[in-house]
Design goal:
Chain lengths: ~180, ~190
């Protein structure tokens, strides 16, 4: 059962982005920011530490996203952090992405790879996953060095794991 | 005339002193009157003694006799009591000997029981310790084996990590990605 506050924030962010007409771009940028937020202890600590003034935390966001993301994305992240919900940022963004995908009758497919995929590879991968799951997918690619090699695709509760990391872990278990 | 008469008679003959009084000339025999008076006085004294002193003396003698008899009786009773006590003491001594023998026998039995119990307990403890030591040894052996296995696994994993990371160049990444896409596509 989802948290009503997270749902509320996600709905608000979605409405703002939709109103601005940049929902696809904002959704994608927020998704990438959420993954960076999860993987970086320093960023997570900086944006959730109550001892750091809100203005300074928002300045960090401006430094990180300014010029690299849309103004809407930067302002939405800044708004969430400024309201003291920094810890819930990944959950709020995941809800936003799910809502945006649902609005387009798509399901989110999170793909983790060790290296970036080309547009052509993403298109072929999306087609392969659509065929495999029977669902129309909104592909979200995350570059995650911990995967080492290969791909891990998550569609809803289904995980298709072709990563080197998992194979090494299986080998370690057998050892 | 015997000699005594020859002596007494002249002595009893009354002489005349310078005042004309008759004096007895015998130093041994008193005058007859004096004898009478003396005899009467003696009789009176003897009678008085018999009448008044004798009962007291007899009473004192009787009391003394009774006291002596009583002391003799008490001595007899004491002797009897002492004899009885001697018998009791001898009997008690006999009982003490029997009690001593019984206590010694009990002590011997208890010592034997304690010894047997202690021996059994020590044997059980030794067996327990041996079993525990065997279990500890087995556990230590298992731990060592597990640790060795874990260490081998860790080293192997590190080696695999190192080798895999070293071998993952860009072309390998692309091969893995293409292989995944192909497998997922085929799987559908």
């Amino acid at each position: 059962m989802s948290d009503p506050r997270i749902d509320g924030y996600a709905r608000a962010l979605f409405e703002v982005a939709a109103a601005e007409g940049t929902i696809d771009e904002v959704e994608d940028e927020l998704f990438r920011f959420a993954r960076s937020f999860e993987s970086s202890d320093a960023l997570r600590t900086a944006l959730t530490d109550e001892q750091i003034p809100v203005a300074k935390r928002q300045a960090i966001i401006e430094d990180l996203l300014g010029g690299k993301a849309t103004t809407t994305t930067t302002q939405l992240v800044s708004m969430v952090v400024g309201s003291g919900r920094g810890r819930d940022l990944p959950a709020i963004i995941d809800q936003l992405v799910a809502r945006a995908s649902s609005a387009k009758h798509l399901e989110v497919a999170e793909v983790r790879t060790a290296v970036a995929l080309t547009d052509e590879q993403q298109a072929r991968l999306a087609a392969a996953l659509t065929n495999a799951t029977g669902k129309q997918l909104n592909l979200k690619v995350v570059v995650d060095p911990s995967v080492l090699g290969g791909i891990v695709a998550t569609v809803g509760d289904t995980v298709i794991d072709g990563s080197v990391r998992t194979r090494i872990d299986q080998l370690k278990s057998r050892l | 005339m015997n000699v005594l008469g020859a002596i007494i008679r002249p002595m009893a003959k009354c002489g005349v002193d310078d005042a004309g009084e008759c004096v007895t000339s015998s130093p041994l025999l008193p005058e007859a009157a004096e004898l009478i008076y003396g005899g009467l006085a003696s009789l009176i004294i003897f009678f008085a003694l018999y009448k008044f002193a004798w009962p007291q003396m007899k009473k004192a003698l009787d009391a003394r006799t009774a006291r002596i008899q009583k002391e003799l009786d008490e001595a007899d009773a004491a002797e009897s009591a002492a004899t009885t006590e001697v018998v009791q003491i001898r009997q008690a001594l006999g009982d003490i000997e029997a009690e001593r023998a019984r206590i010694l026998a009990d002590a011997d039995a208890q010592a034997a029981a304690v010894l047997a119990d202690g021996r059994a307990r020590i044997e059980a403890e030794v067996a327990d310790l041996q079993a525990k030591a065997a279990a500890d040894i087995a556990a230590a052996r298992g731990r060592s084996t597990d640790e060795l296995r874990g260490e081998i696994a860790r080293l192997s994993s590190a080696a695999v990590d190192h080798v895999v990371r070293g071998s993952l160049d860009d072309s390998t990444h692309q091969e893995l990605i293409e292989g995944f896409i192909a497998r997922v596509g085929v799987g559908s």
